[in-house]
Amino acid sequence: MLAVLCADDRPPLMAAVEAAAEVRYADAAGLPAALRGADCLLVWDFLSRAVEPAFAAADRLGWLHIASTGVDNVLFPAMRQSDVLLTNSSGIFDGAIAEYVLGCVLAFAKDFRTTLTAQREKRWYHRETERIAGRRAVVVGTGPIGRAIARLLAAAGLQVTGVGRTARVADPDFVAVQASSDLHKCLGEADFVVAVAPLTDATAGMFDKAAFGAMKPTARFINVGRGGLVVTDDLVEALQGKVIAGAALDVFEIEPLPVRHPLWSLPNVLISPHMSGDFVGWLPALAELFVDNFGKWQAGMPLRNVVDKQLGYVPAR
């Protein structure tokens, strides 16, 4: 039996699953009842935190799949300590997020915001803009999304260094990979800093006052990872004080971003509502991955995207 945590928008392409198993669709309030007797749980509403308070009702659960790459909303202590297998949707969003990051780099370098403002004002405003070829980018997070970002930025002419758990000189996607313990040194060399690390105990709040202070005053910060990677008040202070030159933010500690938050009104900030990976067709792609994994689960085959619950992400092969 399968329980599905969703709101009004049920996942598509579930006919094959519904033909093979009993499926209970539930919102947050109904999840405890849906979990009783369930062997599997699909967390389609991946922003929900309803799994933790309902987890005690999971008397038969063997597998949980979440329709996102990040797993921090379902990796609470009881889940981490349990025997429940956890899988995520790694691989779906890599290319789309890489394109979003390249778009942000170009938007900053080519000053599109000023161009659009001048166009609205019907003002002919000639000026010079920046080249991105030869500039340096640091991508913090060397998983599949970070690697897709590195490949696309490198194709556009940037020199891309990665920051991960372990330093490596030879790497197929990065000029080099530096250890996270050397983060601040790496930040000082970057024109663009891209945060795409998973949110774990080790990465929470890693972009704080000290990290922003280590960056160049001309650097731009791009966060497509998790809002919790950033100490938001420190970021606001760094932007207001021109410690860094700008930020493109797709994720936030609190979502939606409150309407009175100072980030909305800062002239050097680009804000998008947690949508960097949401391309046309992303929902069917998420459903297809789950349906494929469900078939493997029924057949007793190894599943795709098994998360190491101690690390908090799918380990590199």
Annotation, overall tally of beta strands: 12
Instruction: Give the ordered list of helices and strands.
Output: EHEHEHEHEHHEHEEHEHEHEEH
Walk across the major sheet and give the strand order: 8-7-6-9-10-11-12
Radius of gyration: 21 Å
Report on this structure:
The chain has 317 residues and is an alpha/beta fold. The chain has two domains: 2-91 and 280-299, Rossmann fold; 94-271, Rossmann fold (3-Layer(aba) Sandwich), CATH 3.40.50.720. The chain has eleven helices and twelve strands. The chain has helices at 15-20, 31-35, 51-54, 77-81, 94-109, 112-120, 144-155, 183-187, 209-214, 232-240, 282-299, and strands at residues 2-5, 23-26, 40-43, 63-66, 85-87, 136-140, 159-164, 177-179, 192-195, 220-223, 246-249, 269-271. The protein has a seven-stranded parallel beta sheet. A five-stranded parallel beta sheet has the order 2-1-3-4-5. Strand 1 (2-5), helix 1 and strand 2 form a beta-alpha-beta unit. Helix 5 packs across helix 7. The model has no long low-confidence stretch (mean pLDDT 97).
